[in-house]
Design a protein that fits this description.
The protein has 444 residues and is of the alpha+beta class. The chain has 3 domains: 66 residues, SH3 type barrels (Roll); 271 residues, no CATH class; 34 residues, no CATH class. Helix content is 51%, strand content 11%. The protein contains 19 helices and 10 strands. The strands form 3 sheets. A 5-stranded antiparallel sheet has the order 6-5-4-1-7. The chain has a 3-stranded mixed sheet with strand order 8-10-9. Strand 4 and strand 5 form a beta hairpin. The protein is globular and about 85 Å long.
């Protein structure tokens, strides 16, 4: 009879054999996306070309190194192509864990792998959630100064670039100081109405015209910013009431370091930019007015853990929503619809450092549910475009966002973790098509 030691050795050998024989994560099907693509022997454009494939050729993506995919060739060997030279097929059953492990070299452990039972934040969660001041204070405690982020990123040898971006110029113009306040503009309209009346020129038509002008009078850039700065933490605190910060100190510091560095390369670097990772398995992100950006644990675990570029791609998209006041405008429009233009505008506070009554009422009724309101497609496409600009300005590769969208595609349109994102964003293939034609970040 074999000794106990011999049996132990045999059992250990069998276990090793089973591990070795265990199938690896299956490759993700894809097609060559460009007219002709050189496949390189290494993830380097200077490496030898091992094959050239034509558009439409089927390949399997077996892994990722930086912004290169390792693909299996029909002839047998494998090689490398850039992430925008192939297009992923929409996944059918891949989990976040599988995709994260395949593309980022991670095992994909944690609740992110439990895609069958994923229930992300929905409108009812965000509407009902109470404001969590303690969680908000904790989020703000991770905030980095522009100098802190710059010191860290320059040590990483990121090369900044100067890239003009026309849509951003409009945001800069809207934020200029010194313009007339809403109250001053209305005083001017009131004076005009009085003058016309005293001259006997007032009539129904002129009253209607002046009334319309009064009802649509916009606040100054300074007033808009003031209201954003008050709305932002109120909304962020309610999101945190629905899903607290993920208890990973390194993740919180990383997202603030990368986010603050990117924000310094936008048209609104002066905002109190604050970032956080919330403990939710879904794949999503939220950009509240005033510079409060939250990403879910699900999307944080999907991006490359060893390279900041993909995380930067996610954050850069959200930064554009803040820069362009996208969700602030949604709140403004919904205020008008809920209360009526005249009533709403009569309640809005100007100056004094207090949030407008209508905005307070809106938050009391809707909580942070506005963050799951679909923006128009133009805003989403613009944010993708702006993200590539911010990435390039900050020294990252603009293809980083492309890589993230490819990973989302590999997860598939039916992945539970993607449900809210698919509901509020354009289809991924349309977003990728738009990025294919974006030459701004490439310096063209």
């Amino acid at each position: 009879m074999p000794s106990t030691f011999a049996r132990s050795i045999a059992l250990a050998a069998l276990m090793v054999a089973l591990v070795v024989a265990r199938p690896a994560v299956a490759g993700q099907p894809a097609q060559i996306h460009k007219a002709s693509v050189d496949v390189h022997g290494a993830p380097d454009s200077k490496s030898a070309v091992v094959a050239t494939l034509k558009q439409g050729a089927a390949v399997d993506v077996g892994g990722q190194q930086g912004l290169w995919y390792r693909v299996s060739l029909p002839s047998g060997p494998s090689g490398f192509v850039r992430v925008n030279e192939v297009r992923m097929a929409y996944g059918k059953s891949a989990s976040s864990s599988d995709v994260g492990g395949l593309f980022a070299g991670r095992a994909g452990k944690g609740r992110v792998s439990e895609t069958a039972g994923v229930r992300g934040l929905d409108e009812s969660d965000l509407r009902a959630a109470s404001f969590d001041g303690a969680q908000l204070a904790k989020m703000e405690s991770y905030r980095e100064t522009p100098q802190q982020a710059a010191d860290a990123m320059r040590r990483a040898n990121l090369r900044e670039r100067s890239i003009p971006y026309k849509p951003e110029e409009q945001a800069v113009a809207a934020n200029k100081k010194g313009g007339a306040t809403q109250q001053q503009k209305r005083s001017g309209l009131s004076a005009a109405r009085g003058l016309l009346s005293s001259l006997g020129l007032g009539n129904a038509a002129s009253d209607t015209a002046l009334g319309a002008a009064d009802a649509t009078t916009r606040k100054s850039g300074e007033e808009l910013t003031e209201e954003e700065l008050q709305l932002g933490p109120e909304i962020a605190g309610r999101i945190l009431g629905a899903a607290p910060l993920w208890q990973d100190d390194a993740a919180q510091r990383r997202v603030n370091r990368v986010g603050r560095w990117l924000a310094s390369h936008t048209a609104r670097p002066e905002l109190p930019w604050t970032f956080g990772v919330i403990d939710s398995p879904e794949i999503n992100a939220f950009a509240a007015p005033g510079g409060y950006v939250l990403v879910t644990r699900g999307i944080y675990e999907l991006v490359d853990a060893n390279d900041d570029q993909e995380l930067a791609g996610v954050l850069a998209h959200e930064l554009s929503h803040v820069v362009q006041r996208d969700h602030y405008e949604v709140i403004h429009k919904q205020e008008m619809q809920s209360y009526g233009k005249d009533v709403a505008l009569s309640h809005v506070s100007v100056g004094g450092g207090e949030l407008g009554n209508v905005a307070k009422d809106y938050l009391a009724k809707n909580g942070a549910a506005v963050m799951l309101t679909s923006l128009d497609r133009g805003a989403e496409y613009r944010s993708d475009e702006a993200a590539e600009v911010y990435l390039a300005r900050s020294g990252y590769d603009p293809l980083a966002l492309y890589a993230v969208l490819q990973k989302m595609t590999a997860l598939g349109s039916k992945a539970p973790a993607m449900a809210q994102l698919f509901r509020t964003h354009p289809p991924l293939d349309e977003r990728l098509d738009r990025l294919d034609h974006n030459k701004i970040a490439m310096g063209d």
